[in-house]
Amino acid sequence: MEKLIAGVKRFQDQIFHSKKKLFGKLASSQQPRALFITCSDSRVDPCLLTQTEPGELFILRNAGNIIPSYGTSVGSATAAIEYAVGVLGVKHIIVCGHTDCGVVKALLDPKQVGDLPAVKKWLYQAESTRRVVEEVYGHLKGQALQIATTKENVRIQLEHLQTHPTVAAKLRKGSLKLHGWVYSIATGDIWMYDAKQETFISLTDSAA
After folding, report:
1. Where does the pLDDT of residue 158 fall: very low under 50, low under 70, confident under 90, or very high at 90 and above?
2. pLDDT tens digits for 60-84?
């Protein structure tokens, strides 16, 4: 805790003071650019990854960046999506998976969460991912299988997003765009899902 408390003090004494005008503006309202949905994994920092300032991202985190289909589970994820799209009017939603994900490993080997009933129940929300991987990627092994599962999980969560009424309406209107990313912890690379090619490509290459 000492490190965390020291960090808070440094934030108050240095960072907050240098951005006082920004925080003053944010004190009464927010207009985030995007809803960023990612895993709870401590190695994934959305603001560091995108180099964004406070107020630019509305962030939703949970184990495995899972988005329940609308109506299957009315919880914090559903509420956050509805608020971000319906009230804050975000123009983009990014679903960002990552390498070495514990949820992906558990989907491939359920025994890892045998003594974690809450986690095991949560993984039912990713049953589509598990089934698709079993049917399509059964020939892969090791890291190749993990990466394929991570990518497939992102694709399926994008599909789940479209079942949410606020998202579906904005997509039809053309005022909202969905993006699927996979972040490599080891290299810093990000792969982006290209719906036209139905594959993941380098985010930086696509922006070049």
Report:
1. very high
2. 999 999 999 998 766 889 999 999 9
Locus of tokens 């630019």: 56
Q: Which two tokens mark 195?
A: 């719906």
Give the position of tokens 């972040």: 183
Q: At what angle do helices 127-136 and 142-161 cross, to 10 degrees?
A: 130
pLDDT at 207: 63
